[in-house]
TrEMBL record:
Family: Belongs to the avfA family.
Organism ancestry: Eukaryota, Fungi, Dikarya, Ascomycota, Pezizomycotina
Pfam family, one: NAD_binding_10
Top-rank taxon: Eukaryota
Any one GO MF annotation of this record: oxidoreductase activity, acting on the CH-NH group of donors, NAD or NADP as acceptor
InterPro entries per record: NAD(P)-bd_dom, NAD(P)-bd_dom_sf, Polyketide_Oxido-like
Protein name: NAD(P)-binding domain-containing protein
Length: 120
């Protein structure tokens, strides 16, 4: 019987919560056969330093870019069943609105995808 892959897009994989979430996934029995994990990060180098074993997983795809980059966010979200946001703000710096920016970008990308799928 074929196993159904769940596709999960995770934003913020290099932070404390995000990296703990990724580690939790890869420790789960059957992870390689049941989940496709799509990670959006600002720095693939940082992710590789934090979780070097990720390169051994063919079911993990990493997308590097800014959260306001609709094209990269869209690639990360493509065919995702679930979206996990592990972003957070450590400081209350005026003008920094990471969570708002990501929410806006995801909403715009999903709207674009919906419009595109109704045209086909």
């Amino acid at each position: 019987m074929a196993t159904s892959h769940r596709r999960i897009a995770l934003f913020g994989a290099t932070g404390g919560t995000g990296s703990a979430t990724v580690r939790s996934f890869i420790k789960r029995q059957g992870f390689r056969d049941s989940v496709e994990l799509r990670l959006m990060v600002r720095s693939t180098a940082k992710l590789s330093r934090m979780i070097p074993e990720l390169t051994t997983y063919k079911n993990i795809h990493v997308f590097q870019g800014q959260i306001t980059d609709k094209a990269t966010v869209g690639e990360c979200l493509r065919d995702a069943d679930t979206i996990v946001c592990a972003l957070g703000e450590n400081s209350n710096i005026a003008g920094v609105k990471v969570l708002q920016d990501l929410s806006k970008t995801i909403t715009e990308v999903l709207d674009d995808m919906k419009r595109s799928s109704t045209r086909e």
